[in-house]
Amino acid sequence: MVYSSTYNVPNVFSATLAALGDGGTSTNCTPGNVPTSTFACLIDPALEVATVSTTPKSGYYFTYAQGTGTYTIAGGPLRFEFHGRALFLLDQTVVIRAASGVAASATSSPI
């Protein structure tokens, strides 16, 4: 929501998860640099790379999907039962939802 209210971008929300962090360049969020819509410095850089194709964060991978005026961030454990049993979903409603054993959806229980 901070990103959406700070940057005037065509689809309202960030195009990528990396844009919410340092945009893939660790020096972008150092003192003296002014954040932009491509590196907003709003999330931990470890979260922006915790996607299915890279390193998990605290045993979870995250998938970001953006649409026009919408977004979803889904989180799932690297190894079910070992790293966790809950799967999570966050969207533009700013409600975190969870499900056990199946992918969380917009109708899953809020936490």
Description of the molecule:
- The protein is mainly beta and 111 residues long.
- The chain has one domain.
- The chain has helices spanning 2-6, 45-48, and strands at 60-67, 70-77, 86-91, 96-100, 109-110.
- Strands 1-2-3-4-5 form a five-stranded antiparallel beta sheet, with no helix packed on it.
- Strand 3 and strand 4 form a beta hairpin.
- The longest helix is centred in the first third of the chain and has 5 residues, at 2-6.
Descriptive labels:
111 residues; 5 strands; five-stranded antiparallel β-sheet; mainly beta
How would you summarize this macromolecular structure in one to three sentences?
This protein is mainly beta. The protein has one domain (2-110). The protein is built from two helices and five strands.
Compute the average pLDDT.
85
Q: What is the C-alpha radius of gyration, as a whole number of Å?
A: 15 Å
Q: What is the count of helical runs?
A: 2
* Number of structurally distinct domains: 1
Low-confidence segments, given as residue ranges, are none
Q: What percent of residues are in strands?
A: 25-35%
